[in-house]
Amino acid sequence: MIVRILHDGQYEIPQDLEIRLEDMDAELTLALDNDDKQAYESKLAEIINAITAEGEKVPPEKLLPSDITVPAPGSSLEDIKALLSDDDSSR
Length: 91
Known about the structure:
This protein has helices at residues 15-33, 37-54, 77-89, and strands at 2-5, 9-12, 56-57, 68-70. With 91 residues, it is an alpha+beta fold. It has one domain. The chain has a 4-stranded mixed β-sheet with strand order 3-2-1-4, covered by helices on one side. The mean pLDDT is 90.
């Protein structure tokens, strides 16, 4: 699976991480839904750290379709809520 971290690049991740990311994403979504800034920031950092530590960085000249896109490190809860709101309004 290919994961893109915004402003960082793409990573090919192993299958066991893919499974763990599903759980982490559910926790991140819950933090977003509950406006829990601390939980959101902690979970986003955990996700990014897992991807960069366990994934293999895809060379920038090899652009592949991404299966998942992760917000950039340091993206605020408000930024992501606004981004998701923009996505919903374009449908």
